[in-house]
Amino acid sequence: MASEDDYTAQPFVPDRGGLPALRKAAADCHGCPLHRDATQTVFGAGTATARLMLVGEQPGDQEDRQGKPFVGPAGHLLDRALADAGLDPADAYVTNAVKHFKFTRAEPRKRRIHKAPTLRETTACGPWLAAELDRVEPELIVVLGATAGKALLGSSFRVTQVRGTLLEEEIHGRPERLVPTVHPSAVLRSDDREGAYRGLVSDLRFAAQALA
């Protein structure tokens, strides 16, 4: 069995082809053990001409079942927040730092409970995100939450310190512009959901201005 140090998706990522070729190849990715329990790979969705890329943490339960990113409760909230911020969700490319659902169960056959991926697992999946950035070449990346931020910007990333600001960094060899904010699932978990939602919309409005 490979050690964690050997986890990487790189051998599964094709050198050529567009997003359809990447999506097809990702379906067979065994770069880390997360594929064993997940129903399927959940690759990014959207067009290669999208100016905006949204990067989240990992698929959730509904995403794992349907094979599409951001189709569960957090995704519906994100779509509403984007619209309220003046951004059309249909114009964005949406993906996750990790392409397989990581979960635990309190008891057999019980509800699957989200479990955050480790930094090693997000690093292993990094070649897929690098390939998506290469194919889409977005003008702006909205970073949704701490896991996505650490995957793109390193382990020292803290979303609370930089949310709603414009960062300019080199990511996978490309100069990128990024606006970090919270993950929409954090809004759903908040004791002050209305206030948390307003904060998310405010950050997305800033992203819309940066994209204008």
Describe this structure in words.
Helices cover 38% and strands 16% of the residues. It has 212 residues and is an alpha/beta fold. It has a five-stranded mixed beta sheet with strand order 2-1-5-7-6. A hairpin with a 2-residue loop joins strand 6 and strand 7. The radius of gyration is 16 Å and the shape is globular. The protein starts with 18 loop residues before the first helix and ends with a helix.
Features:
single chain, 212 residues, alpha/beta, five-stranded mixed β-sheet, two-stranded antiparallel sheet, 8 helices, 7 strands, 38% helix
Number of contiguous helices: 8
Order of helices and strands: HEHHEEEHEHHEEHH
- The helix content, as a percent range, equals 25-40%
- Unreliable runs: none
Question: What is the β-strand count?
Answer: 7
Q: Please identify the structural class as seen in this structure.
A: alpha/beta
Q: Could you tell me how far the N terminus lies from the C terminus, measured between alpha carbons in angstroms?
A: 49 Å
Shape descriptor reads globular
Secondary structure elements and their pairing?
Layout: H1 19-26, E1 52-56, H2 61-66, H3 73-84, E2 92-96, E3 103-105, E4 112-114, H4 119-136, E5 140-144, H5 146-153, H6 159-162, E6 167-171, E7 174-181, H7 184-189, H8 193-211
Parallel strand pairs: 1-2, 1-5, 5-7
Antiparallel strand pairs: 3-4, 6-7
Helix pairs in contact: 4-5
Question: How would you sum up this structure in a few lines?
Answer:
Helix content is 38%, strand content 16%. The protein has 212 residues and is an alpha/beta fold.
